[in-house]
């Protein structure tokens, strides 16, 4: 159970789920709180604009009814008290002498009220003012009482100041109306809004969860489809390429890569099958010859001793050939598995090459092929002489095998302070350009019939390359069909494991 949970947490599905859940939730919450805030702001602005309007009307009434001069007008007094009640607030009217002629709370009535805000309005420096008090709990609006009572009804924000009527030519005010009211009523509305929003947020979380679950199921579908197809391939159906419809580009790329791998496996598989049939054929040929030779000796009576000798010589040759094929195969398997440890020793490369050439000389002489060793300097290097001998002798053997009668083979040895270089060039048939990459592959032979005639299995260059790579060296091939071939080998003088 814990393991399954752990696997789920590590899965792509989980990543999608978490991402979508968090992102959609954050989006919903951000949008919700934006709506809530702008609603709160708008209601506050509306309320302030409404009260300002009422104060402006009151200011014009105060002016028209000369209330500043005789403040005991019952009608207007009642109206002011009613307005204060409706607003659940307090209205104070100050005359030009800063004397409070009306306070709906009566506390300040008859006293002087000299504040910076009142003074600025009185001298005409500013017009209507709106302020928030006690951490937005209360709003204070100050409205000038002017001669011309064409008072504007501006919509204001907190702590804003409007120029007095008349724009820049502000007039001195005859008095100021101060209106203070609580916005607790608004808070109630906001509180209600908040509780509604909480329900909405709960809904948002649910929606985000559903979206995240759906996405975590839908988005990995192409990957799952690819996995199903790969399982099909893993079951052994290597012959069909993977085809995915409606997939992501990235998944398509992975599919293409898998198809490339599959086609490589197909090539390897067919090469392997070809090799098995070739090897069986190669292994069977000497045995068949031996059987024929032995049978013909057995079937005859009183066979002359010379004939025995001749046939036995042929049988021995076939045994040698069989032996070569088996040895090559075993060498390659050993080199391939990399289980062989290199037996590194200090070897004189000039002597090594001389010895190899001496061995091949008789075969070359048979076809009048001239073999020359060009030693540019004495070279002593740390190598495994057995394995590198295999590599060099195959290169020289090939140069002779795939040469024309009367041709030449040049083996060149040179060195610098780090590497020694062996170059084997011939005047042979050459290798077609399209085959040059493949000749190092196991069992690959350009001309299969010819290679078989010359006793080749196609393993020689694979063995050569493996042996050179084991010495941390490199091999390159330059060839032109019909003109000849050159193989260059580079091996470090000092072996560093
Ligand atoms: N010097 C060369 N000139 C022309 N073709 C070459 C030369 N060397 C190699 N090739 C081509 O590359 C093929 C692979 O060579 P490789 O040595 O691996 O196999 P092989 O010579 O056929 O068999 P083996 O070396 O196992 O006896 C050869 O069959 C031949 O067609
Ligand atoms: Mg060869």
Q: Can you give a write-up of this model?
A:
With 497 residues, this protein is an alpha+beta fold. The protein folds into 3 domains: 7-189, 2-Layer Sandwich (Beta-Lactamase), CATH 3.30.450; 249-335, Helix Hairpins (Orthogonal Bundle); 341-492, Heat Shock Protein 90 (2-Layer Sandwich), CATH 3.30.565. The chain is 54% helix and 16% strand. It has a 5-stranded antiparallel beta sheet with strand order 2-1-5-4-3, sandwiched between helices. A 5-stranded mixed beta sheet has the order 7-9-10-12-11, covered by helices on one side. It has a two-stranded antiparallel sheet with strand order 6-8. The longest helix has 53 residues, at 12-64. 24% of the residues are buried. The chain binds adenosine-5'-triphosphate and magnesium ion (MG). Adenosine-5'-triphosphate (ATP) binds at residues 328, 394, 398-399, 402, 426, 428-431, 439, 444-447, 451, 456-462, 485.
Low-confidence stretches: 149-158, 163-169
The total count of strands amounts to 12
Largest beta-sheet details: 5 strands, antiparallel
State mean pLDDT (0 to 100 scale): 86
Q: What kind of oligomer do you see?
A: single chain
Our Rg estimate from Cα atoms comes to: 52 Å
Task: Please tell me the total number of domains.
Answer: 3
Helix-strand string: HHHEEHEEEHHHHEHEEHEEHHEE
The CATH superfamily of the largest domain turns out to be PAS domain
């Amino acid at each position: 159970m814990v393991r399954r949970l752990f696997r789920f947490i590590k899965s792509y599905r989980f990543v999608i789920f978490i991402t979508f859940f968090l992102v959609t939730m954050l989006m919903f919450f951000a949008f919700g709180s934006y709506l809530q805030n702008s609603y709160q702001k708008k209601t506050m602005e509306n309320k302030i604009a409404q009260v300002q309007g009422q104060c402006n009307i009151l200011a014009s009434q105060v002016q028209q009814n000369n209330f500043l001069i005789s403040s005991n007008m019952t009608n207007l007094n009642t109206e002011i008290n009613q307005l204060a009640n409706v607003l659940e607030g307090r209205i104070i009217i100050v005359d030009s002498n800063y004397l409070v002629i009306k306070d709906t709370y009566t506390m300040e009535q008859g006293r002087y009220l000299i504040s910076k805000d009142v003074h600025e309005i009185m001298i005409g420096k500013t017009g209507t003012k709106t302020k928030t008090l006690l951490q937005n709990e209360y709003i204070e609006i100050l409205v000038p009482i002017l001669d011309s009572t064409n008072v504007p009804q501006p919509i204001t924000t907190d702590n804003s100041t409007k120029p007095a009527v008349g724009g820049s030519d502000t007039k001195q005010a005859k008095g100021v109306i101060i209106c203070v009211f609580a916005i607790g009523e608004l808070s109630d509305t906001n509180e209600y809004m908040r509780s509604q929003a909480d329900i909405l947020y709960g809904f948002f979380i649910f929606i985000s969860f559903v979206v995240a679950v759906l996405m975590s199921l839908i988005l990995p579908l192409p990957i799952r489809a690819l996995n199903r197809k790969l399982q099909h391939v893993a079951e052994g159906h290597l012959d069909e390429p993977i085809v995915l419809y409606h997939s992501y580009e990235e998944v398509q790329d992975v599919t293409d890569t898998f198809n490339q791998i599959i086609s490589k496996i197909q090539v390897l598989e067919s090469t392997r099958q070809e090799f098995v049939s070739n090897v069986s054929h190669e292994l069977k040929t000497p045995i068949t010859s031996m059987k024929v030779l032995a049978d013909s000796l057995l079937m005859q009576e009183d066979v002359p001793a010379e004939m025995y000798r001749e046939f036995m010589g042929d049988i021995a040759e076939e045994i040698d050939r069989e032996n070569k094929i088996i040895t090559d195969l075993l060498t390659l398997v050993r080199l391939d598995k990399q289980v062989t440890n290199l037996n590194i020793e200090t070897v004189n490369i000039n002597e090594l090459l001389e010895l190899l050439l001496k061995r091949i000389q008789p075969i070359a002489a048979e076809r009048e092929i001239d073999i020359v060793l060009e030693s540019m300097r004495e070279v002593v290097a740390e190598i495994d002489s057995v394995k590198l001998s295999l590599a060099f002798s195959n290169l020289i053997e090939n140069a002779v095998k795939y040469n024309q009668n009367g041709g030449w083979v040049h083996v060149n040895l040179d060195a610098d302070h780090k590497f020694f270089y062996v170059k084997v060039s011939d005047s042979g048939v050459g290798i077609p350009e399209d085959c040059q990459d493949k000749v190092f592959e196991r069992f690959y032979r350009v001309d299969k019939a010819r290679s078989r005639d010359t006793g080749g299995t196609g393993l020689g260059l694979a063995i050569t390359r493996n042996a050179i790579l084991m010495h941390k060296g490199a091999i390159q091939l330059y060839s032109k069909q019909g003109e000849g071939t050159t193989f260059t080998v580079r091996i470090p003088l000092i072996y560093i494991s």
